[in-house]
């Protein structure tokens, strides 16, 4: 995977940086695995805007992803590597020996023709899914379950991976991309490897229009609003606006928002790294 820069033949291409999509093998999704995707434009059921800065964007169809990987002991062959407009990672189309097809998150390095499998005692190879208790220490994993059978909910974005660092009874200890170290039930499953499209973070949109194609409208800073519109608004000239806070008055940049009585807090060994 590499990134692609452009000659500045137009103003928008001068700063544009995109991913080189050489890994993508087709531009047509599997028809049986797509579903309609309706946009709200930030409006609720009464038609009132409840979420600002959303609207427009290109039409999309949702790709049904198999996050559970519960077709055990049935090898699947990778048919295509595809782009998914609904997520940052690439997806892979599998065809199992019984003819069934499904989409999975494509790990980095997975190619057309490779075989992957899920099960309790399968080898911990790239793209295989197995219980955390059977994955070797030090392995990089993604699509991690928190409740057995529920499906992977952690580490699913482009280029991300967690590391299995220790095993302790019915729990294993996993270091997450945020730097947080936490315990996860050893019977939960995870997929071996790093999520594909690791260069996604290096992309530069290059122009405002590409942001609109993604369904994002222009965003106003609170300090340029009036006092009636935002707690940080008002003042003469370019006032700082005071301590950063949200439109509802909740402090940002430092205030802890996690519920201190959350039941999963006892499973967290060390918290995530603080931002600079």
TL;DR of this structure?
The chain is mainly β and 276 residues long. It has one helix at residues 208-213; strands spanning 3-5, 17-19, 34-36, 61-63, 76-82, 91-96, 101-105, 115-116, 129-131, 140-142, 162-168, 171-175, 181-185, 189-192, 268-270.
Per CATH, the architecture is: Beta Barrel
Query: Mean of residue pLDDT?
Result: 94
The CATH first-level class comes to Mainly Beta
| Helix/strand order, N-terminal first | EEEEEEEEEEEEEEHE
Largest β-sheet summary: 7 strands, antiparallel
Beta-strand content estimate: 15-25%
Helix content: under 10%
Tally of contiguous helical segments: 1
- Mass-distribution shape: globular
Count structural domains: 1
Radius of gyration: 22 Å
What name is given to the CATH topology? OB fold (Dihydrolipoamide Acetyltransferase, E2P)
Q: Structural class per helix/strand content?
A: mainly beta
| E-strand count | 15
Distance between the termini: 29 Å
Describe the structure.
The protein is mainly β and 276 residues long. The chain has a single domain (3-200), classed as Beta Barrel (OB fold (Dihydrolipoamide Acetyltransferase, E2P)). The chain has one helix and 15 strands. It has one helix at residues 208-213; strands spanning 3-5, 17-19, 34-36, 61-63, 76-82, 91-96, 101-105, 115-116, 129-131, 140-142, 162-168, 171-175, 181-185, 189-192, 268-270. The strands form four sheets. The chain has a seven-stranded antiparallel sheet, with no helix packed on it. A four-stranded antiparallel sheet has the order 7-6-5-8, with no helix packed on it. The protein starts with a strand and ends in a 6-residue tail after the last strand.
